[in-house]
Amino acid sequence: MKIAVVSITRHGIAMACRVVAALPGAQLFAPEKFRLEAEAAAGNTPGSQAHCYTGKVGEQVPALFAAFDGIVCIISLGAVVRLIAPHLKNKESDPAVVVVDEAGKFAIPVLSGHLGGANQLAGHLATALGAQPVLTTASDARETIAVDLLGRELGWTFDATHDEVVKASAAVVNDELVALVQEAGSADWWPRHANGRSGPLPANVILFSRLEDVDLDVVAAVLWISHRPLPPELAPRLAGRLVTYRPPVEQGA
Under CATH, which number does the domain 3-136 receive? Predict the structure, then answer.
């Protein structure tokens, strides 16, 4: 990820030094009046440098949104919400935004927690800073399956409409029965789940080795990990509640 770290106060820049150290290559943005402090904060981390601006921090947001995959703001949460609100488009393209307080006690994902990686970025910063990650996404807070992230760390892609992902995600977090059918790919997808998973598999997720073995009349959604095309006779019965995952072929069956 290309990451920008933004701070607007002297104490915030002191914290930015620790943040940049945890994110080699991150670029620090700070007001011109704090140039010396900003250059010192960024100077000890390879690939990082300070960029100092005149005017208001809000004027920097469009360029930051366009140039970076992630933005770490050492600014109050409320101020960040107001700063980014006019520039939001959609979760497929908005950058990850994380807020860290000046004391380094909390790392809070604000925007693009899943697809953009803000939850993962907050978790990394929390570990590096000794902070508490504040994850409010239901699947991460409860450490259940994040439908749109399953297998991402293993190079899997998924095929589903937005509505299908929403329906399957709701089924997972609302404890409805969900069939997870694994016909291909690495078997260690749960311990390697994005953002970390340490507990047992959720009780409402039932594992199958063949799609044809699932009783489609009792499950709310199906998560299907396979290399093969969907059998035509099953397509009508799975419409609207199927998410298909495609592992790299070298992961086998």
Answer: 3.40.50.11220
